[in-house]
Design goal:
The complex is a heterodimer of chains A (430) and B (515). Chain A is mostly helical and 430 residues long. Helix content of chain A is 70%, strand content 1%. A two-stranded antiparallel ribbon of chain A has the order 1-2. Chain A is globular and about 65 Å long. Chain B has 3 domains: 239 residues, P-loop containing nucleotide triphosphate hydrolases (Rossmann fold, 3-Layer(aba) Sandwich); 183 residues, P-loop containing nucleotide triphosphate hydrolases (Rossmann fold), CATH 3.40.50.300; 65 residues, no CATH class. Chain B has 17 helices and 24 strands. In chain B, the strands form 6 sheets. Chain B has a 6-stranded mixed beta sheet with strand order 6-9-10-3-11-12, with helices on both faces. In chain B, α4 packs across α5 and α8 crosses α17. The interface between A and B is large, with 42 and 69 residues.
Chain lengths: 430, 515
């Protein structure tokens, strides 16, 4: 009993987003297992996993930026168009002005920053709602893409394609696996172990009740197991394939942005602005600067996503990025962000994006048409958020918690929400 | 007048909210054709009583009886009371700014002909109604384009469109200037001569003295007395005595103040209203704070104390026009909240839920929110330092929560207030401005917060306490400024501070000590 209690506390306890995220990871695992069975093992085959990552890396990169935008209380509808606009300019810069590809990448990021500054200016300094600014941006930059490219496609050179279609090279002895991918997996295992040790030390320094050792070990074992499994899969694909370069870019960005949002003052300010902008302002947060930076950052990431997509499809076209904004927004909300801002995590959004990706991929493997795939994705988005809203209203925080609640007797009763209490009537002692 | 028939009688009304008795055995008798004033401090129960009368709190949610025009009434909602001719005009006007005067007058009460609104009839009747309240405007004018005083008249015309017999006005002149107030009071006298009965809630005692026939005074949710203005020879002093009443107990920790030199000075401070450019929130106001001193700002709600304080705190309210701030002998310019924090000012806001805290945060994140730099090492937040800081304040202020990981939305009002205090103590301020620091907090927590305030002052900091509770100011402060309509109307040392003196200065716009 006490072990079960410990486990529950460490899974569901702590912050609400922890519990929410655990629920999401559980959902992801369940979906993967479901499709693995339904597709007779096709889902977790090396080539499918690699394709899955390549096809979705740009959406997940967008989800990182979108998470920050949504946490700050805004929305960005223009990301697909911005990606297409940056993509066509970069393609043109290489074909017409024969810019070398690394310079073209830098140029693309600069375009993203410029577009972001433009949109951030209207949102932060003029005060036009982001919904309107980016709706305008959606039209503006879609039109811009088609104007510049004459509504035609522009191919990109071989070197540039690496960022979208490239893989880790084969080096070292012939082990039957891609060695670099294995090394990467090893590094990830070491990082996870180091993190767990550090987390334990931090808890000790805070004089909080330490996480029971067996839970630490269990958690570590699960994560290392998952990493080992994934690296073996990625490393054992067709010769010449391995962990995709776009996946590496994604992982680097996820790590960097997770760190930024969790462990720096700048990141904390984004949550403060989204949670209560007036309170944030009265605590000395520079509201406008935060809003400006969040919007700018989103467009930079959109430009990057656009370039990766162009690189993968070897050419920039007029329909690139159509509907991406919706996929990115869906990923963020499935990943537990609040529509009203202030709540959400990068890792949650990535998991949310993966849920959608696996769903998409699995249904395609099963031969379900795009019409029905869209219907199912729409319902999943609605249900995921509805369940979350429902759970919040019940004062519970996770699907699992809800399912097992009836089995528990020691359910902690959350304090009654303030709003439901009587209006505060101040007695005036005379 | 006292022989006039009784129009309304509220008998032993008792209204309880969970945990709080807002009204206890309140009686009110209003005679036909009189202007009846209801007085009392903030929180005395005036508004609750009117909400009971107008059906906002429906029959069954309170105890007691309401007899209106000779029959007992049981209003289920506002529509029912309006149907009976009881119309309440709230302090915050219920008008739609982007609709015309006519549309507003008949909103929800549109004259119809065969299902469609008859705008010709509506306009004709609107002009009649406007004439009755002395409003001369084109009925098609949008409400947002006329001044507050005229908007108030539209609100009254709207009441007449519903065949009002008993007009209730909640602080009708609070937002009006002198001339508009006078016009409104004349209008009420005119209504009286035509037999309309009015109930008026007001903090402006001079107006009440001038216009009311009888006055009912409430205190702590009870009826204190009903005075007949002419027969009893009532004046402002008499009303104040009724409002503040009883003795102060010892509800404050002992303290011997050690007051140092003046270190913070605001001179000739003038601030414009954020929206209407011609309004001044305050005009050429000056005040000083000494080290180790607790300075009170007394005033009724809406007197402009919060606005004054926030405009000093990094211009977080209104538009700065002129004035200087001198701290430790040097003039400083605070353009933003960040500047103010950097110059070691702190402002603990009145409304902790709306603007004081991010309710999504836990205790530790809230504690360090105003000074993240203090827990940042080389650009990275130090979770251990954050935890330690929050934990030490949790102990010092006795915040009742199992750990600092607890979400602030789960804390009680008193504990939330302590978290806000911790947040600003963490910035290590020289000057702390506390806006209504004990509003909505139970007695025990109040005592603790008073202790914290005194400790902060004894550490040599200056503390400014804004409060609507006079006993609190008198018990806590070394010196008290009184504020009325954005103007500092008096400066009273602790020895001379008593409720009557304060209340008198708080309700008069005359400057007794021009500085």
């Amino acid at each position: 009993m006490s072990r079960a209690k410990d486990l529950r506390k460490n899974l569901f306890g702590g912050t609400t987003s922890n519990a929410r995220q655990f629920g999401m990871i559980f959902t992801l695992v369940a979906i993967v297992v479901l499709f693995q069975i339904l597709t007779d093992g096709l889902t977790l085959r090396s080539d499918n996993l690699i394709a899955l990552f390549q096809q979705n890396s740009y959406i997940l990169i967008l989800a990182i930026g979108m998470l920050m935008v949504i946490v700050a209380g805004h929305i960005d509808l223009s990301v697909g168009s911005v990606a297409a606009f940056a993509g066509i300019l970069v393609a043109k810069s290489m074909s017409d002005w024969s810019l070398p590809w690394p310079a073209a990448v830098a140029f693309g990021l600069l375009i993203g920053a410029a577009i972001g500054a433009w949109q951030g200016f209207w949102v932060a300094y003029v005060g036009v709602p982001a919904f309107i600014v980016t709706l305008a941006g959606m039209l503006l930059f879609r039109g811009g893409n088609q104007f510049i490219g004459n509504a035609d496609t522009i191919p990109v050179p071989e070197g540039f394609r690496v960022i979208g279609a490239g893989f880790l090279p084969e080096v070292g002895p012939n082990t039957g696996y891609n060695n670099l991918t294995l090394l990467l997996g090893l590094a990830a295992c070491a990082a996870v172990a180091w993190r767990e040790v550090r987390a334990r030390r931090t808890r000790r320094e805070m004089a909080a009740d330490p996480t029971p050792t067996w839970i630490s070990i269990l958690r570590l074992a699960v994560m290392v197991g998952a990493i080992v499994f994934a690296s073996l899969r990625f490393a054992s694909g067709r010769v010449g394939t391995s962990f995709p370069v776009s996946g590496i870019i994604l992982v680097a960005l996820v790590l960097a942005y997770s760190f930024y949002t969790r462990n720096t003052a700048g990141g904390r300010h984004i949550y403060a602005v989204g949670g209560n902008s007036r309170a944030a302002e009265l605590s000395g947060v520079k509201l406008r600067r935060v809003n400006f930076l969040v919007m700018t950052n989103m467009s930079v990431l959109a430009a990057l996503a656009g370039m990766i997509f162009v690189a993968r499809s070897a050419a920039s076209g007029p329909q690139d990025g159509n509907g991406w904004e919706l996929d990115a927004i869906a990923a963020v909300f499935i990943g537990g962000a609040a529509v009203s801002g202030g709540i959400g995590t990068i890792s949650g959004s990535i998991v949310g994006g993966l849920v959608m990706a696996v769903l998409n991929n699995g249904l395609q493997l099963l031969g379900v048409g795009t019409d029905r795939v869209q219907i199912i994705k729409g319902l999943v988005l609605l249900l995921a958020v509805a369940l979350d809203v429902y759970n919040k209203r019940q004062g519970r925080f996770s699907v699992i918690g809800g399912l097992t609640r009836s089995l528990r007797r020691d359910t902690p009763t959350p304090a009654a929400p303030e709003a439901q209490r009587a209006p505060a009537v101040t007695k005036v002692p005379g | 007048m006292s022989d006039a028939p009784v129009l309304l009688e509220m008998r032993s009304i008792t209204k309880e909210f969970p945990g709080v008795k807002a009204l206890a055995d309140v009686n009110l008798v209003v005679r036909a054709g009189e202007i009846h004033a209801i007085c009392g401090e903030n929180g005395a129960g005036k508004s609750t009583l009117m909400k009971v009368l107008s059906g906002v709190h429906p029959h069954g949610s309170y105890d007691g009886r309401i007899v209106y025009r000779g029959a007992e009434t049981r209003f289920a909602d506002i529509r029912a009371s309006e149907g009976a001719g009881i119309v309440i005009i709230h302090q915050e006007l219920a008008l739609v700014p982007d609709m015309s005067i006519t549309e507003n007058i008949f909103l929800g009460n549109e004259p119809r002909r065969r299902g469609a609104i008859d705008w010709r009839l509506a306009n004709r009747r609107a002009v009649e109604l406007m004439a009755r309240v002395g409003l001369h405007e084109d009925p098609d004018t949008l409400v947002k384009d006329i001044g507050v005083g005229k908007q108030q008249l539209v609100e009254i015309a709207k009441a007449f469109a519903k065949d009002v017999r008993l007009l209730i006005l909640d602080e009708p002149t609070a937002a009006l200037n002198e001339a508009d107030s006078r016009h409104l009071l004349d209008l009420l006298r005119g209504f009286r001569s035509r037999g309309v009965t009015s109930i008026m809630i007001s903090h402006k005692l001079n107006e009440i003295e001038a216009i009311a026939d009888r006055i009912t005074i409430l205190r702590d949710g009870r009826t204190v007395e009903t005075l007949d203005v002419r027969a009893d020879g009532v004046d402002e002093d008499r009303i104040v005595r009724g409002m503040v009443g009883r003795e102060l107990g010892s509800r404050f920790p002992d303290r011997t103040p050690r007051i140092g030199e003046v270190f913070f000075e605001v001179r000739d401070w003038t601030v414009r209203h954020p929206i209407s450019a011609e309004r001044r929130v305050c005009r050429n106001e000056s005040f000083v704070v000494r080290r180790g001193e607790i300075v009170g700002f007394a005033g009724l709600m809406g007197a402009g104390r919060t606005e004054l304080a926030m405009s000093v705190f990094g211009r977080s309210y209104g538009v700065y026009e002129s004035g200087t701030i001198v701290k430790d002998g040097r003039q400083i310019v605070l353009r933003s909240v960040a500047d103010a924090i950097a110059h070691r000012l702190a402002y603990v806001s009145e409304d902790r839920k709306a603007i004081g805290l991010n309710l999504l945060d836990d205790i530790k994140a809230s504690t360090v929110a105003a000074k993240l730099a203090k827990v940042t090492r080389r650009g990275v937040l130090d979770a251990v330092a954050e935890h330690r800081a929050a934990e030490s304040y949790r102990r010092e202020l006795r915040i009742k929560a199992p750990t600092v990981d607890e979400g602030v939305s789960r804390l009680s009002g008193g504990n939330q207030q302590k978290v806000v205090l911790a947040k600003w103590m963490f910035t290590d301020p020289d000057l702390l401005i506390l806006d209504e620091p004990t509003r909505g907090i139970d007695v025990g927590a109040k005592y603790e917060i008073y202790g914290v305030i005194q400790r902060l002052a004894d550490q040599g900091r200056g503390v400014v306490v804004i409060s609507s509770e006079l006993p609190e100011l008198i018990g806590l402060c070394d010196r008290i400024y009184t504020v009325c309509e954005g103007a500092i109307t008096g400066e009273i040392a602790r020895e001379h501070a008593d409720p009557e003196t304060l209340m008198k200065r708080m309700t008069s716009t005359k400057r007794t000590q021009p500085r």
